[in-house]
Amino acid sequence: MRALQTEPQFDGYWFIDVSSRRVERVQELREEFPGCVIDVHLGDCNEILCQIVVPKLPYFSKQRAFVFLDPYGLQVDWETVRELADTKTCDIFVNFSVMGVTRLLPRNQTPMPEVIEQLNKVMGSTDWITQIYREHSEIQLDLFGNPTETGLSRETIPAEWLASLYTEQLKSLFPHVSRPVLMRNSTNSALYALCLASHNQAATKITNDIFKKYERLRNSQR
Ligand SMILES: C[S@@+](CC[C@H](N)C(=O)[O-])C[C@H]1O[C@@H](n2cnc3c(N)ncnc32)[C@H](O)[C@@H]1O
């Protein structure tokens, strides 16, 4: 809604969702905003962005796009982020699900290969997993006095750390990346880390300023 209400308008808007109910709702926006060119796609954002949207935005087209990636969990593939970055025409505003990552990490053992694969698909690297489980593991004794290896539990992995891990990864694809701001629920658990990855330095400076104001406001309301 904010994008559609922005003045001056964007030349066009693409909305992508895998849920037909949500897509139906978004279709209605065409009537609410008759002056906007709105394209709605039902399907997996990874396929639609890479196969339909990215090919429409080559660098020589002089078109520029702003892509808001707003999944509930770990649905946006790192490969999609890479393809968007490679266009050099797309900036992304991404809500990265830190909660989705911590939920996948087991409490006291190294994650299973399937989990590592899933995290790799979303974050582009999982070197950090072996790193944290090794660095933070310590030998403790079980009830019978036998040594047990306890890794870093998902409760003790700071959300800030996961967020900065993702933004560091983004820096390998985009020249300018804002710092992340954590989005928390009513019980103060971190759900998402929001950040901007851009081809324009001024954009990240502005975003960092806005994030600072947001955090000041949030802290004053605690
Ligand atoms: C947090 S909501 C987005 C809310 C939306 N930005 C808004 O302001 O109304 C996440 C959405 O992602 C959709 N979704 C989940 N997996 C997806 C995928 N692979 N491709 C496209 N959409 C997906 C869900 O159906 C859901 O509508």
Describe the model.
It is built from 9 helices and 9 strands. β1, α2 and β2 form a beta-alpha-beta unit. By secondary structure, it is an alpha/beta fold. Strands 3, 4, 7, 8 and 9 form a 5-stranded mixed sheet that branches. A two-stranded parallel ribbon has the order 1-2. It has a domain of about 120 residues. α3 packs parallel to α4. The structure holds S-adenosylmethionine (SAM).
Question: Which tags fit this structure?
Answer:
222 residues; alpha/beta; two-stranded parallel ribbon; binds S-adenosylmethionine
Radius of gyration: 20 Å
Bound molecules: S-adenosylmethionine
Write the H/E string, N to C: HEHEHEHEHHHEEHEEEH
Q: How would a textbook summarize the main sheet?
A: 5 strands, mixed
Low-confidence stretches: 138-142, 149-153
Q: Strand fraction band? A: 15-25%
Quick summary of this structure?
The protein is of the alpha/beta class and 222 residues long. The chain has helices at residues 2-5, 20-32, 45-53, 78-87, 98-104, 113-123, 127-135, 159-170, 201-220; strands at 13-17, 38-42, 65-69, 90-97, 138-141, 147-150, 176-177, 181-184, 190-198. The chain has a domain at 44-103 and 159-220.
